[in-house]
Amino acid sequence: MEAITVLLSQQSKKPLYLQLYEALTKEIKEGRCPAGERMPSRRRLAEHLKISLNTVDSAYQMLAAEGYIKSVPRSGYTVCPLERLPVSRETPPPIPAAAPMPALPYDFSISTVDAGAFPFSTWARISKDVMYHQPELLAHGDRQGDSCLREALSRYLRQARGVRCAPEQIVVVSGMEYLLMILCELIGREKVFAVENPGYPRVVEALSNAGGRVRPLSMDGDGLSAVELSVAGASAAYITPSHQFPTGTVMPIGRRSELLCWAYEQPGRYIIEDDYDSEFRFSGRPIPALQGMDSKGRVVYIGTFSRSIAPSIRISYMILPPELLERYRAAFSRYSASVSRFEQHTLYRFLEGGYYERHLNRSRSRYKKRLETLVGCLRQGRLANKIQVIGAQAGLHFLLQVQNGMTERELIDKARLRGVKIAGLSSYCFPPLTPSESTLIMGYAHFTSQQIREAAALLEQVWSN
Amino acid sequence: MEAITVLLSQQSKKPLYLQLYEALTKEIKEGRCPAGERMPSRRRLAEHLKISLNTVDSAYQMLAAEGYIKSVPRSGYTVCPLERLPVSRETPPPIPAAAPMPALPYDFSISTVDAGAFPFSTWARISKDVMYHQPELLAHGDRQGDSCLREALSRYLRQARGVRCAPEQIVVVSGMEYLLMILCELIGREKVFAVENPGYPRVVEALSNAGGRVRPLSMDGDGLSAVELSVAGASAAYITPSHQFPTGTVMPIGRRSELLCWAYEQPGRYIIEDDYDSEFRFSGRPIPALQGMDSKGRVVYIGTFSRSIAPSIRISYMILPPELLERYRAAFSRYSASVSRFEQHTLYRFLEGGYYERHLNRSRSRYKKRLETLVGCLRQGRLANKIQVIGAQAGLHFLLQVQNGMTERELIDKARLRGVKIAGLSSYCFPPLTPSESTLIMGYAHFTSQQIREAAALLEQVWSN
Asked: How far apart are CA A453 and CA A451, in angstroms?
């Protein structure tokens, strides 16, 4: 230990060395100075607490005499092992441990991606370069994110997704949850926020935590409908048109116009377009983002690099239409950017150097092959005429409907017993419901071909009986 | 350009090449393909849009014939300069530019720190090490922050600040604003949040944006009082006891106990202790954090590394008492950590290696010297008997009361004309008021001794007349 901070009072009648002695025994008894740890040097502690060396000496000698600490030649005092005393009434209640996450050999969770596919050595090299050559990035940056990154993002999104925006409209934020909390305030938490049902529980959680009035609405084959939105009295609609989570629906162009018309009907209506999984479209022509069709500034486009780069890179962004941008600038005027500038500049160079696009192209074909392998394996075996694959034109997961007489719960439990973790569609419904169809969500991105074959064989075994 | 995403319809009666031609002219006319930029290669665009090479050829030839693009030998087509057409009605309204921040040669803003004091080469070296040797950090980490960092933080805070907590109570968050938004939800935004007046506008903004009912309360010489809190019906009190912002008061131990008693009086009352500037105490014994005195779990301790390391390093943290921790785990169960794991591990090693503590010790003496130089200069000259220095025992700013007959506004304006930027105390009051005393806030951390002498001389000139 370098130092210990305890409260000593000059006014007390108790001498300082006694106060120090008592404070230190308390630290040791209550386990905050663990056995074996070295005590601060006498000189260091005296200086830290602004007391004399003699005072520390006296306290340490008492502690040593009573066996709390012992002197070790040439390294000062260390704390002695101590039978744990009964917890004093003053100690706050013990902290419950966080719920553990059980790991299974085969995990079809949708939150996993193939981090190995990412050109990490390039990222690390750029990152090192930024760190060594741009120490000026230690200072405050632009609160919406540094402009070079926003410019690169707006270029990339125009080319890849048909998004039209000025770099000034972009706000870079450390993660989707924070972003949604900000949006909730900008649009107005007293408004009704419609979300897709089934949909993304994280989004429901983040909007609710921000105080928003969240209404999950059911969808038809094309996604959320304008009629449902109007009936629900919604002012904002959170949608995932590129690859609906979790059903995999790609929203057709007709429905997109319909939703835009809904937004234009009344002032203050907004569409929050989460361009989820748009990077991974496997067949058909790319459909530009809804944002690019919006001529009246009613679409907020949001995106993240957590899935296309790596989960631990916390860079998300939103593109605010002019009205909301103005509100943001007024109400969030004192906020600082929430993403480290070193990471912002690493991403900027990664985008500008073309590395990101090459990475996506490589990943796309790699994921496509995995998807085909998995679907192929499932369709070949004894399950062949009992399954249906839904929403596999795009994205890193698809839905698997299984008609073998088992309930969704049974399918999941039987798989778990053989080491395969799968989630059911029903747990993405609000409220969670008991479904008539047994439907599973298959996230496959991080599997090797070999693992896919093994997992598919296990599923065939447990689901065929 | 690598690619352009436009919407083409197979169903339309218009042939594809014509649709593509029209979409591209629109992109060029509206300035989204700037003059001089290279068009995507024909092959690349055909592949991207999943159309034939012939379709792209036809569209490009039409564009070239009409002068939108021109063929450049061996490098394909580039966009021609184009007179800007009148803005079409479809274009969203132009984006207002963000308010510019005027820079002045001498800046006494409190948000600046001396980034040069930070051992950046050590930080960069550790950061590189983490990046090159721990690629596993690309995967999801603990949502409260990686446990090694939380353990190091709890050890550090115990030793340096007398904070007592289990690492499980710590939540690492990317910045104070996000942290306060989360806290507001945990404590309950329908509750009354008392803040110090004068105080920190960023805190008022963040709590208000989270929907909290914020009540600025006036202070006496010791800080916020329990009586004021009770009268206001507050459930939470945000305080800065180590060095009140901006008055510089260090809250005495008596007042600290008083506030704890207030919190214990009723369930659901919390103290949010922002241990602002506690790293920079220049005289007297360190006073342990209020959190360490709390035996009933009613203090939330919050801190940040933005000032002690660098503004662009976005790592803040909060220590939740058991009740709030439980609420956090239930309501924020799907949140991801908001700080990059690479940065978390860099900070972890920086703390564990003792670099942080050495850095603070060096900074403390460096800042102390600057503070003494500035106060000395001001007290020597013609202003000597017209000024009073307040709250300079700790922290990176102090208050300067000037009694020369000028109003606060006049003092600020006269300084600005000579290139010195200073803020007045009144702009940190809620609501901003016209003060009877002229009081200025002097943030001095980033000045060299030379700059201090120059700035002080300028102030002496403009304020003595």
From this structure: 5
Q: Specify the pLDDT at position B67.
A: 72
DSSP code of residue A194 = E
DSSP letter for each residue of A209-274: HTT-EEEEEE-BTTBS-HHHHHHHT-SEEEE-TTS-TTT-PPPPHHHHHHHHHHHHHSTT-EEEEE
Q: Which residues of A touch B202 (CB under 8 A)?
A: 334-335
- The answer to whether B7 contacts A287, with C-beta atoms less than 8 Å apart, is yes
A158 and A231 in a single domain? The answer is yes
pLDDT above 70 covers a percentage of chain A that reads 94
* Contacts B292 to A, Cβ<8 Å: 5, 7
The answer to whether the beta carbons of residues B365 and B380 sit under 8 Å apart is no
Residues of chain B with pLDDT under 50: 84-91
CA distance A133 to A122: 16
A327 and A406: one domain? Answer: no
Residues 6+ apart with CB under 8 A from B400: B378, B387, B388, B389, B390, B439, B440, B441, B442
**Domain final residue pick, B310, B326, B358:** B358
Residue B221: CB atoms within 10 Å: 8
Q: How many CB atoms neighbour CB B263 within 10 A?
A: 23
**In a shared domain, residues A50 and A122:** no
Of residues A54, A45, A31, the one with CA closest to residue A1: A45
CA of A4 vs chain B CAs: smallest distance (Å): 4
Closest Cα in chain A, distance from residue B342 (Å): 8
Q: What is the pLDDT of residues B354-379, one digit of tens each?
A: 999 999 989 888 999 999 999 999 99
Tokens of B97: 């530019």
Instruction: Give the total residue count for chain A.
Output: 465
pTM above 0.90, yes or no: no
Which CATH number characterizes residue B417's domain? 3.90.1150.10
Q: Are residues A367 and A354 in the same domain?
A: no
Are the beta carbons of A295 and B90 separated by less than 8 Å? Answer: yes
Tokens (6 digits) for A242 = 């590129």
In which region does residue A93 sit, left (phi positive, over 0), alpha (psi from -120 to 50) or beta (all else)? beta
What percent of chain A is predicted at pLDDT more than 90? 60
pLDDT tens digits for B239-269? 999 989 999 888 988 899 999 999 999 999 9
How close, in Å, is residue B343 to chain A by CA atoms?
9
Report residue A85's pLDDT band, with 50, 70 and 90 as the boundaries: very low
Give the nearest chain A residue to B289 (CA atoms): A5
- Provide the b/e sequence for B85-107 (b: ≥16 CB within 10 Å): eeeeeeebeebeeeeeeeeeebb
Predicted pLDDT at A131: 92
Domain count of the fold of chain B: 3
Rounded to two decimals, the ipTM of the complex is 0.82
The residue from B314, B331, B358 where one domain ends is B358
Query: Is residue B272 located within the same domain as residue B335?
Result: yes
Beta strand A106-107 with B423-424 is: unpaired
Kindly determine whether residue A335 and residue B177, on different chains, have CB atoms separated by under 8 Å.
Answer: yes
Residues B37 and B134 in one domain: no
What's the pLDDT tens digit per position in B138-182?
Answer: 888 999 999 999 999 999 999 999 999 999 999 999 999 999 999
| Domain range for B426 | 106-111+363-464
**pLDDT bucket at A103, cuts 50 / 70 / 90:** confident
Give the position of tokens 């939703």.
Answer: A259
What is the rounded average pLDDT for all residues in chain A? 89
Same domain for A159 and A135? yes
- Name which of A340, A344, A355, A363 to mutate to probe chain B: the one with the most chain B Cβ atoms within 10 A of its Cβ: A340
The answer, yes or no, to whether the previous bond of B246 is cis (omega within 30 of 0) is yes
Q: Which DSSP letter does residue B252 get?
A: P
